[in-house]
């Protein structure tokens, strides 16, 4: 029978080494024994941007990028998007199983009754400039929450950990909505505990003079589905940040603030905003060939296209495209949709995109729906951060319980100067 191991010959010494293979990986630390001189540090791998390095073992999310498959805890994303709800999915990600009826009701009750934030959080948010980006406000305010809940650092206690997970999932929409109202100069709308998770969020964003806001059930459900699709995506930039920062044993509010910062970048969760700006700049279908030419010349990137893991159609983008039809039936079609559809059609026929396996990702169509639902562009990444909070917390919690994990601390290949003596300023 074939052996589950890898034999390496070091041509510098002629020595051979047999390394065990587990789950198609070798342990990087097993390479350390490979050295020329006994007192040498030993072999490492060099992997900028972790393109081929597994940093953890996880049971949460499975992605098969070649075949466009995404499962949460084994359940296909298409089935969850069709049949589940965001809060149920959050529970699934965090605790590994779909909740029973009682567990689901209890979970919903807990989340609903932690939506309010301390009044001083509001005061803190009032200090932002009138034009502060909602993501900047969210990042800072979530970080500040750690000062309101100093007990959160006792996360080894299971009840305490659960309480702070509940607080974060419950309060993120409140902070997100406050950041929007703040940026718009509108009075704050407090949470309405009679509404669903997404219904309440819509109310906090949209309620004006009327004392009660009745969310449109189609938009409420559409937002819930968008939240399901964005809830987790294994070891992406922000999730790796959550795990790396959390590995120092800092409280989850501080780690989640760092993860949100990672999400804010235009190559990650900021892409949905960038897509809309790009579509607006293109302006009309007849300008698309000119844009494709620029992309192929390396002068610009097609935002919302390409993915580190998916080398076929992103299943989330497919689900969002279907959802868009339902939303546009109600809100009227977003005029930028024609540009997006034509851009996708031309790009998918083009050899440049085919050769690099570039397909629309989750951000390509999500912004069009958000815009049709009346959300301003600056809120798009916040709309991503709300559901991803569940994924970040599930991944953080898994890391905390993983006995193999330690503080994250990559190595480097040093290419700088050899040791030299300090030079006085007059000699430089
Ligand atoms: N438009 C044009 N060309 C692209 C694009 C794009 N959107 N994405 C990748 N390429 C090209 C690169 O120029 C490169 O070509 P080359 O081999 O001729 O140099 C090749 O495809 C591979 O690209 P990399 O940058 O090496 O791919 P990587 O896996 O590092 O990047 C990323 C993935 C960041 C998502 C990239 O595709 C990108 O910048 N996309 C646009 C931004 C975006 O939509 N981000 C959202 C991702 S989804 C999410 O985070 C939720």
Describe the structure in brief.
By secondary structure, the chain is mainly alpha-helical. The protein is 50% helix and 5% strand. The mean pLDDT is 95.
Descriptive notes:
By secondary structure, this protein is mainly alpha-helical. Helix content is 50%, strand content 5%. The protein has 17 helices and 5 strands. The strands form 2 sheets. A 3-stranded antiparallel beta sheet has the order 3-4-5. It has a two-stranded antiparallel ribbon with strand order 1-2. The mean pLDDT is 95. Acetyl coenzyme *A binds next to helix 16.
N-to-C span:
66 Å
Strand content: under 5%
Shape: globular
Q: Could you give a short account of the major beta sheet? A: 3 strands, antiparallel
**What is the helix content?**
40-55%
* Mean pLDDT metric: 95
Radius of gyration: 24 Å
Secondary structure elements and pairings:
Layout: E1 5-9, E2 16-20, E3 61-64, E4 69-72, E5 75-76, H1 77-83, H2 86-95, H3 101-112, H4 119-126, H5 134-148, H6 158-184, H7 197-206, H8 217-229, H9 237-246, H10 252-264, H11 271-282, H12 288-296, H13 315-331, H14 337-349, H15 351-355, H16 362-372, H17 380-401
Features of this protein?
single chain; 428 residues; mainly alpha; two-stranded antiparallel ribbon; 5 strands; 50% helix; globular; binds acetyl coenzyme *A
């Amino acid at each position: 029978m074939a052996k589950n191991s890898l034999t390496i010959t070091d041509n510098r010494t002629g020595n051979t080494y047999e390394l065990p293979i587990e789950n198609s990986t070798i342990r990087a630390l097993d390479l350390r024994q490979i050295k020329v001189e006994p007192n040498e540090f030993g072999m490492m791998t060099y992997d900028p941007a972790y393109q081929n390095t597994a940093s953890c073992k996880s049971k949460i999310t499975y992605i098969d990028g070649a075949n466009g498959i995404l499962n949460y805890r084994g359940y296909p994303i298409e089935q969850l998007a069709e049949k589940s709800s965001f809060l149920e999915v959050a529970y699934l990600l965090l605790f590994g199983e779909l909740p029973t009826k009682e567990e689901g009701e209890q979970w919903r009750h807990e989340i609903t009754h932690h939506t309010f934030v301390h009044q001083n959080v509001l005061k803190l948010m009032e200090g932002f400039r009138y034009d502060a980006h909602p993501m900047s406000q969210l990042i800072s305010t979530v970080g500040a929450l750690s000062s309101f809940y100093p007990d959160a650092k006792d996360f080894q206690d299971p009840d305490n950990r659960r309480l702070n997970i509940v607080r974060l999932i419950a309060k993120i929409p409140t902070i997100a909505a406050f950041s929007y109202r703040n940026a718009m100069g509108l009075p704050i709308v407090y949470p309405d505990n009679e509404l669903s998770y997404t219904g309440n969020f819509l109310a906090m964003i949209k309620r004006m003079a009327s004392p009660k806001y009745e969310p449109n059930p189609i938009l409420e459900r559409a937002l819930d589905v968008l939240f399901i699709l964005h809830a987790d995506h294994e070891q992406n930039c922000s999730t790796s940040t959550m795990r790396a920062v959390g590995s120092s044993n800092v409280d989850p509010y501080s780690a989640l603030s760092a993860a949100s910062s990672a999400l804010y970048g235009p190559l990650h969760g900021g892409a949905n905003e960038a897509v809309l700006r790009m579509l607006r700049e293109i302006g009309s279908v007849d300008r698309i060939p000119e844009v494709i030419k620029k992309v192929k010349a390396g002068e610009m990137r097609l935002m919302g296209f390409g993915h580190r893991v998916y080398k076929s159609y992103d299943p989330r983008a497919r689900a969002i495209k279907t959802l868009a039809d339902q939303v546009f039936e109600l809100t009227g079609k977003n005029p930028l949709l024609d540009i997006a559809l034509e851009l996708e059609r031309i790009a998918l026929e083009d050899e440049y995109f085919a050769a690099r396996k570039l397909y629309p990702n989750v951000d390509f169509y999500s912004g069009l729906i958000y815009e049709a639902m009346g959300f301003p562009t600056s809120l798009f990444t916040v709309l991503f951060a709300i559901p991803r909070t569940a994924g970040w917390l599930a991944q953080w919690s898994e890391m905390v319980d993983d006995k193999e994990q330690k503080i994250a601390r990559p190595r480097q290949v040093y290419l700088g100067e050899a040791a030299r003596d300090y030079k006085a300023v007059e000699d430089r």
